[in-house]
Amino acid sequence: MRAMINADPQELAKFGDLAHHWWDTESEFKPLHQINPLRLDWISSYCPLAGKQVLDVGCGGGILTDSMARRGAKALGIDLATKALKVAQLHAMEAGTEGVDYREIAVEALAMERPASFDVVTCMEMLEHVPDPASVVQACADLVKPGGWVFLSTLNRNAKSFLQAIVGAEYVLKMLPAGTHEYARFLRPSELAQFCRNAGLDLQASRGLGYNPIHQRYSLSADTSVNYMLACRKPS
After folding, report:
1. Which of 82, 208, 229, 233 is the most buried (most CB within 10 A)?
2. Is 58 annotated among the ligand-binding residues?
3. Domains in the chain, ordered, with CATH?
4. 39 is in an annotated binding site
5. Using CB atoms within 10 A of its CB, is residue 210 exposed (0-12), middle (13-18) or buried (19+)?
C-alpha cells in the first residue's frame, strides 16, 4: 500500500500555476524576495552557512535555497511542485549558482533515506500549506544532525493575522493572489513550539516579520503576532 503524501494537491497546483513568476521580483512573489535577505541573515547569525550541508524544505522556485548556496553552503532544495522545481533548476543553471541541487521528494521520504545528514534544515512559508505540519517538523528534526539547526516560519492564527495576512495582503493591498492562504491552517507559536518539542528539538529563539505598508518594507521585530520564525537546535 502506497504511503499517503503529506501535501494538498490544490496547494501544489496553485503554486505550480504561478511557477513562471518565481524569479520576477515584481510578481506575486515580491514579498518572498523582500523578506529573503532578512531571513537569510537571521539564519546566518545562528549558524554561518559556509561549508554547511543545508536542506530547504518546500523550496518552491529556490529563492532561499539559491541564496544559501551563494553564502557557501552545499544546498539541497526539495518540493513536490514539479513546475516550481524546474524553474529553480533553470534559474540555478542560468545564474551559475554552485553548490545547489533540487529534488522532487517529500520531506518524510527524504528523512527515511538520509537521516541526520544536514547541518541546517529550513522550512519557510510551507507549514501553513500542508495537511499535517507536525509530520513535516518531525521529518526536519530527523534530517538534521545532532547539534544542527532547524529554522521554521509560518503565520500566527489570530484576528490580527487574519486581517493583515489575508484581508490586507490578498484583498486590499493585493500583494498576494486571493486564496493564497487558508486561515484555519495558520499555527500559533505555542502550537509550533509544541511540535518542535515533540520532535526532540530545543527552541532557541523566535522572531517576527513586520511590514510597513507606507514604505513597503519588511523588518525583523519582536512581534510574532502575524509572520514569525523559530530557531531550534537538535541536542548533541
Report:
1. 229
2. yes
3. 9-234 (3.40.50.150)
4. yes
5. middle
